[in-house]
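Hi there, hope your week has been kind to you so far. For a while now I've been wondering how a particular protein folds. I'm sending you its amino acid sequence along with the backbone structure tokens. Could you read through the record and tell me how the tokens relate to the sequence? Take your time with it, there's no hurry, and the full record follows here.
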Amino acid sequence: MSEPRLYQSIAAEIVALIEKGEFPPGSRLPGERDLAERLGVSRVTVREAEIALEAQGLITIKTGSGVYVKARPAQAPGALPDVSAFDLTAARAVIEAEAAAMAASRITDDEVAALAGLIAAMVDPTSGEAAASEADRQFHLSIARIAGNPVVEHCVQLIWRMRNELPRVKQVYANVCHNDDDTRDEEHTAILDALRARDPAGARLAMRNHFQRLFESMLEATENEALAEIRRRTQQDRERFMAATGH
């Protein structure tokens, strides 16, 4: 996956400041010069970031007046909540672990075979990434259905909507899952083994371990991104110093 362009990173930083309340809806953003100095980039990069944010409907650029934060529209009934990948994964560790425990007491031999087929589809090198991802989704949704509680099944369906439809959640999962295929397959197999043994406690633990490892992978990826950003800023500071001192 390619590195984000600089203006995209700056746009994300501006959004973070807006979401933290530093620039509330209706307020005017600092001028390009001030933002450029604060964020350690050129005014051109700030301008590109603002153009991108205006295209997303987050700000309004008024010529001769400034840049203003737009009010967020009221959330429509049934709209997905804006959650982080970390929040979602923590919820999955609770809800899907209990779904697995419930399913272990009810699962049939035919259902065990169907889940085994889904794991085989995940590891099939000819399947392609999209097919493997869909098999992963069906694996978890099937366990929720086997659990036999329509509320649990609905919750897991909603979880997967958030996982696949919220852009920032989808991106984090894509970054992590792309690099851990072998580990993920082992974890799914451990879940299936506990279900096949009709072991509720084992199924709960296997599912919880799956999400615990996923959560740790997300933390590691986030830390690596933060370190890369620090190095980028440090290099910019070094270059500005060298330019100012004539070295």
